[in-house]
Design brief:
With 311 residues, the protein is an alpha+beta fold. It is 30% helix and 14% strand. Strands 1-2-3-6-12-7 form a 6-stranded antiparallel β-sheet. Strands 10-9-8-11 form a 4-stranded mixed β-sheet. Strands 4-5 form a two-stranded antiparallel sheet.
Length: 311
Amino acid sequence: MKNKRQFILAATLLALFSSPLLYAFEDCGTSVTECKLRQTIKALQEQNQKLVRQLEQMEKTAETAALPQESTSGFFQDRLKDGSLGPKMVWIPAGTFRMGDIQGGGGSSEKPVHRVSVSRFAMGMYEVTFAEYDKFAQATGRTKPSDSGWGRGNRPVIYVSWHDANAYAQWLTQQTGKKYRLPTEAEWEYAARAGTTTKYWWGNTASHEYANYGNTKEGKDRWEYTAPVGSFEPNPFGIYDTAGNVWEWTCSPNTNRYDGQEQRCVNSASHFVLRGGSWFYVAWRLRSANRLWWRPAGRYGGGGFRLARLP
């Protein structure tokens, strides 16, 4: 910035001393010459200040363009290197919650119920879509996953392994300069519950008015298979489809019972935990506390993911 101002000043002085006006005033009387010269210098100084202000505004605009694009709807998007925007993310406030089978009736792997503290982070507003993943696949030369004929675009990407999901997160990190990864189990359940202690974020009774599940069309659930993301109401944190649609990979390894691993991200494990249930599974699997696990290389038509982003 300092060098640019010096350049403008030098250019202004050069213009001053090479100006025909300056030499035209030599034949005037001394007082007239001084008057005209001062007027010319003042005019050029004002022009210099104007150019500096314009330069500062241009730099401010450039800096703002590089920042995450905030929305009045509560989400933000980081810019990729080509100037386009990444997935919509929602800031999740730090807090403490009870994790596990709070209501009872769950599996043994959902125990013991325990208190967990979670730091502030951002969570994907939606499950990662085909449109978002296809852009990554095309940019990196990866094979695009099948959609089974159900549609691409804003439907959640399916047939993606844990390795595929991590590769997408690493690509986004490189593209934006921000740290993206899969959420831990604890982060996922904290975001899915959104301050609730019921079986589902909307209450204790499963309903097709709030989620796509059961491989059937009923109520607001008009899709036999995957539904476009955001087709149902969001939870209190503004996160969509945490119940049903597709299972979502986490970065936490599977354990038979909670032992602290649910709060960790690891790079290797024989099985990783998925959360949220899917279009194919019964309502019991949609509960916020429910856990499923699979091998990291596994892919199928009910499995997708959403991402977390660190501050």
